[in-house]
Design a protein that fits this description.
Order of helices and strands: HEEEEEEEEEEEEEEEEHH
Number of helices: 3
Structural class: alpha+beta
Strand content: 25-35%
Number of domains: 1
CATH architecture: Sandwich
Mean pLDDT: 83
CATH topology: Jelly Rolls
Shape: globular
CATH class: Mainly Beta
Radius of gyration: 19 Å
Helix content: 10-25%
């Protein structure tokens, strides 16, 4: 009977999504604001598998083989747009932007867009030999940009940009490539509604990327280097599923100890 009660409790927790907040290095699934694996959806639809409804639209680009399952290939004239929403705009208290990228052509300038919310708010770009991340402070990016890492043509790289309310950190293939103490954001405006663009600057010509993107995600907290390493090696879905299961296990253990 006790075993049946335990099973019922676990089932209820899974259905209701009730997670007791604990101090843990596991990734909090509730911090996930958007996740685009490019394996779901038909036609021009890009499905947000985070459950937050941030579905996007493919504009002339094509699905191809990605890092895992399908990715999206861009030829420098096309893009993906993800409309603004409450969760897309939830970044001022901390964020993580991450993706897999495989370049198939040299950038046309000092850097071109991979992912960008509005204008540098935040973004990850790729340069001739490296990666670049920025976050607007006081209307500009002069003192709030980080650059580093390397990439190889036709090879996959895992890139992430985080901000914890103080430090902006660029990760490339699981390691810190650059960091900068930028402090807290000094603005509250969401700037043009905060749509996210993949491989293009707000739909305008120029600053366009040639290559493939896969497993794009945004969080409203700065993930740790260990968290990012787990995502890089296990993939987004598995890393988040394991974290959720571990949280549930710890929660049920606490409930039993309190009885």
């Amino acid at each position: 009977m006790r075993g049946m009660n335990a099973l019922i409790m676990i089932t209820v927790l899974l259905i209701a999504g009730v997670w007791v907040q604990k101090s843990t290095s596991e990734i909090d699934p509730e911090a996930l604001m958007g996740m685009w694996l490019f394996d779901q959806g038909k036609g021009d639809a890009v499905v947000d598998t985070s459950g937050n409804g941030n579905d996007g639209e493919i504009v002339d680009a094509e699905r191809v083989d990605g890092k895992s399952g399908k990715g999206i290939e861009f030829d420098g004239t096309n893009h993906v747009v993800i409309p603004a929403s409450k969760t897309v705009n939830d970044f001022l208290d901390g964020f993580t932007y991450l993706l897999w990228v495989k370049p198939l052509g040299n950038p046309s300038g000092p850097h071109v867009r991979l992912i960008e919310r509005d204008w540098h708010n935040p973004n990850i770009l790729i340069g001739p030999t490296d990666f670049y991340g920025s976050f607007i402070f006081n209307g500009g990016i002069d003192n709030s940009a980080v650059r580093g890492g390397t990439w190889e043509m036709d090879e996959w790289s895992f890139v992430a940009l985080t901000h914890d309310g103080k430090t902006l950190v660029l990760y490339v293939d699981g390691e810190v490539a650059a960091d900068l103490d930028v402090g807290e954001p000094d603005f509250t405006a969401q700037h043009d509604g905060g749509s996210i663009w993949l491989t293009r600057w707000k739909g305008a010509a120029g600053w366009d990327f040639t290559g493939v993107l896969d497993e794009v995600a945004i969080f409203n907290t700065a993930l740790s280097e260990d968290d990012l390493g787990t995502i890089m090696t296990e993939g987004l879905e598995k890393a988040l599923s394991v974290s959720a299961i571990n949280r549930l296990t710890m929660t049920w253990g606490d409930i039993k100890r309190q009885r």
